[in-house]
Design brief:
Length: about 550
């Protein structure tokens, strides 16, 4: 049956369904563009993709998050955002096709998506109130109106046209509009105008959002880190081995791993930033500005950090030189005592500007280790991606129980009375870093030549120290590797072993022993709930 005949029976033909889907896509594009512009007036974190993405992260089971980090690494947020956009695109196409026949229903579907975005915005832990819902609402209204208007062009009769030979009416003999005719010219003009306007609005919104952190960037540029009252000792020359392919002793800022839930990196204006200390057992609550912290005596330390999502042999570990305020001193000034001295609080909950909560044992923070509120990283103010203006750094604890970035609030409480973000999602309350080691070179499936091959890598057991590293070739005996000089027990150690490689396939395995005598276990465990364990192995083929 021809499309014209289907139209006469009240059913839209295939061409108009396709144009309806196109209308839906344009409506979706317009909605996102308008939302981007409104978010620039509110705050970048209020955009619909960001708030829905954040809600999706919060609702995702821990095992799925762990899988995403394992497979996508630091691109996991980009993959999530692309997934959200893909769902929106498919939904927009479907709503557009539906609106060809049911205009109000299709347009209402766009409004429904706006309601979902608004609800997600209002329920974010860092929500500032009804303003956060505006981008989703205004964007959805714009998209719904556009869809209603465009699909109206697909059902409206074409206007009469004229030619030199006289008027030509596009009507049937009975005077009614031909059912297979619709306002082609009006649709094309409206669709093209909408696409162009949406592109301009989206570009302006993105530009404004990109410049919204200008004050924060300027405030960071003005920060001058003073000389520390307690500087880090010089790094021994023998702390770094000259082996090609091994991780450097100090990880450059641009190579340092980043694992967090922020889809948009917070850009905090340091001049307006404040951090509050309060809660159970805090006899003298206080609030601090960045200048307050910069005026205090600062400590400088090299500390290796490790993410709990780091698989055996994974990349989420790095060593940097941090400068900051000793956290134990600041807590003591506020009247806080550790539980071992009768303190009422056994958990410190750090809150980030994006609503993240991280819980740390008070006893560990005040046991003499160099736990700090870090202000600088590798000789410069903290990069935005790593927590500017202030973050926590605690040697020996995985990041999810210690390394709060963009911190703005410290509350003293108990483990029994409050579960932080990750604990509510199945992770452990306490998580000291496990003794681990990694082979950096040769890489998996490498094809080295016969002869001497340097097997090398890093090992870490923060706050305990690495005492020994051993390497095994296939099922042979364990051979003790050469260890680089130890800098402190809070940093990783490089190691190496010359191997006389013979032709064929081989499996290289490494294990470490810390200074308590604990040997790295061969028992493989997942990262959930308190870190992965097992020996790291690589398979190579010697030519």
């Amino acid at each position: 049956m021809r499309d014209e005949e289907k139209d006469q029976r009240g059913r839209p033909g295939l061409p108009r369904l396709a144009l309806g889907a196109l209308s839906g896509a344009l409506a979706g594009f317009s909605a996102l563009a308008v939302a981007e512009l409104v978010a620039a007036a509110v705050r970048p974190q209020s955009g619909p993709v960001v708030v829905v993405g954040g809600a999706s992260i919060d609702a995702t089971p821990a095992s799925v998050k762990d899988w995403a980090i394992r497979h996508f690494g630091t691109d996991d947020k980009l993959v999530l955002q692309l997934g959200i956009l893909a769902v929106l695109a498919v939904s927009a196409l479907a709503l557009g096709a539906l609106a060809v026949r049911l205009r109000r229903v299709g347009s209402a579907g766009v409004l429904l998506f706006g309601a979902v975005g608004a609800a997600a915005a209002l329920n974010r832990p860092d929500s500032i109130g009804i303003a956060d819902a505006l981008p989703s609402v205004v964007g959805a209204v714009a998209g719904a109106l556009l869809l209603y208007g465009l699909t109206g062009r697909l059902t409206a009769p074409a206007r009469s046209t004229s030619s030199e030979s006289g008027a030509v009416s596009e009507e049937t003999a009975g005077g009614a509009p031909a059912p297979d005719e619709w306002d082609r010219r009006g649709f094309v003009l409206a669709a093209a105008s909408a696409a162009a306007a949406s592109a301009v609005v989206g570009a302006v919104g993105r530009s404004l959002n990109g410049s919204s952190g200008r004050d924060a960037v300027a405030s960071r540029a003005r920060v001058v880190l003073p000389l520390p009252g307690s500087p880090a000792p010089p790094v021994p020359k023998r702390a770094g081995l000259r082996v090609a392919g091994i991780s450097p002793f100090v990880t450059p800022n641009h190579d340092f791993y980043r694992v967090d839930t922020a889809l948009v990196v917070p850009k905090v204006d340091a001049t307006a930033w404040r951090m509050r200390v309060h809660g159970k057992g805090v006899r003298r609550p206080a609030a601090y500005s960045l200048d307050d912290l910069l005026r205090r005596e600062l400590i400088e330390r090299d500390i290796t950090l490790t993410c709990v999502s780091n698989e055996v042999g994974g990349p989420y570990v790095g060593n940097a030189r941090w400068i900051g305020v000793r956290l134990a001193d600041l807590l003591a000034e506020c009247g806080v005592e550790p539980p071992s001295r009768g303190g009422r609080a056994d958990q410190l909950v750090a809150r980030s500007v994006d609503g993240m909560t991280i819980g740390s044992p008070v006893e560990d923070l005040m046991d003499g280790r160099d736990a700090m509120l870090a202000l600088g990283m590798n000789g410069e103010p903290l990069p935005f991606a790593h927590g500017f203006p202030v973050r926590m750094v605690v040697p020996g604890l995985y990041g999810f129980v210690s390394a709060c970035k963009w911190i703005e609030d410290i509350e003293l409480t108990t483990f029994d009375s409050y579960d932080p973000y990750w604990v509510r999602r199945g992770w452990a309350r306490r998580a000291p870093i496990r003794t681990e080691s990694r082979i950096d070179t040769p890489k998996p499936f490498a094809r080295p030549k016969t002869g001497t091959v340097m097997v090398a890598g890093v090992a870490w057991a923060q706050h305990r120290g690495v005492d020994k590293v051993e390497v095994r070739i296939d099922d042979g005996p364990w051979q003790e590797a050469h260890l680089a000089a130890e800098y402190t027990r809070d940093t990783w150690r490089q190691w190496s072993l010359p191997w006389q490689a013979t032709k064929g396939g081989h499996t290289l395995t490494v294990r470490a022993t810390d200074r308590t005598g604990t040997v790295q276990t061969d028992r493989r465990t997942r990262t959930i709930p308190d870190g992965a364990s097992g020996w790291h192995s690589v398979v190579v083929t010697v030519d």
